[in-house]
Write a structure and sequence with these properties.
alpha/beta, 5-stranded parallel sheet, elongated
Length: about 325
């Protein structure tokens, strides 16, 4: 894609703005960095969402954040004046449940992820293993690692059919060791990934490490390729197209703030793509990006630009 063709929404002519709004029937949007950030809702989002709803646009939300419950998501959207049902919000934990059920997983699941993510797996009837959480004493590391190895030599451990990696702020080297051992022990054990983000933005000039690096580590040391059930995974794209009965993907606008996870996912689904500069990607980063499939069709400063967009179109 020629980067010079990527236009800011408000730089379009009035006729182009009208054509843009008429070019999609529904919006699928990321949440963090687009609808809200670490400190709260992004200004103008509530008014923009109301205008889009009034215009008949169907709103759906695809999140990579498995640390919130579905009820927390609904409450946050209610504060923005959007009544969202579970069907309208795609959660990586529930996508993982759907996949494991689709393959009739009967074995235990080892999960590196938040408590919310694990709870959704357990509520669906899966045996979930996690940990260890106890610290290995620095002065007895060799003994602890020998014990760790003996633990995996034991035949009392349940058979693990899948290792799942998502966001876990308490992830440790021993947990990654345990994940590797399960994958090595059973050649049929699946490696599944929820969020694949390398960086998680928390606000302006503030971000933290995401789970993407840990997924890469496990892929490298085991020779396995993770099946990605979050953005930008192919499996998730199939779920999305089926769940929302998408027959004309070009009539859907995907909105996100991250180039690989959001815009790359939009390309995979065949959607139109809008990058919001309100989260983890700046205009300079977009222009420096060298993967055409991860570049948007349009960009905007934030959802609030839709408010001005509708004002401009109303003046036609």
């Amino acid at each position: 894609m020629d980067k010079s063709q990527i236009k800011h929404l408000l730089d379009l002519s009035k006729e182009e703005k009208k054509a843009f709004l008429n070019s999609f029937d529904g919006i699928m949007s990321d949440c963090d960095g687009v609808v809200w950030n670490f400190t709260g809702p992004i200004p103008g989002v509530d008014d923009a969402l109301q205008l889009l709803k009034k215009d008949g646009k169907k709103l759906s939300f695809i999140s990579n954040n498995g640390m919130r419950t579905m009820e927390e998501y609904r409450q946050k959207f209610q504060k923005l004046g959007v009544e969202s049902q579970e069907y309208d919000i795609v959660h990586p934990g529930l996508t993982t449940v759907k996949y494991l059920k689709s393959i009739d997983m009967q074995d235990a699941v080892y999960c590196i992820g938040a408590g919310v993510f694990k709870d959704y797996l357990r509520s669906a009837g899966f045996t979930v293993l996690d940990g260890p959480t106890e610290r290995i004493p620095d002065d007895d590391t060799a003994k602890a690692l020998r014990s760790f190895a003996g633990f995996f030599a034991s035949t009392n451990e349940p058979r693990v059919g899948a290792v799942v990696v998502d966001i876990d702020v308490n992830v440790s080297l021993t947990q990654l060791m345990k994940a590797k051992c399960y994958l090595d022990r059973n050649p049929d054990c699946l490696l599944l990934a929820g969020a694949t983000d390398y960086i998680i933005p928390l606000g302006e000039k503030m971000d933290v490490i995401g789970p993407g690096y840990f997924i890469d580590l496990l892929e490298n040391v085991t020779g396995r390729k993770a099946l990605v059930l979050g953005k930008p995974g192919h499996a998730l794209s199939e779920f999305i197209l089926e769940q929302f009965h998408v027959t004309h993907p070009e009539r859907t606008l995907f909105i996100g703030d991250m180039l690989p996870q959001d815009i790359g996912f939009g390309t995979l689904c065949g959607f139109q793509k809008l990058l919001m500069l309100s989260g983890g990607t700046s205009k300079a980063m977009m222009l420096a990006h060298n993967k055409p499939e991860e570049l948007p069709n349009y960009y905007a400063d934030s959802f609030a630009d839709f408010v001005q967009l509708y004002k401009d179109v109303a003046e036609l």
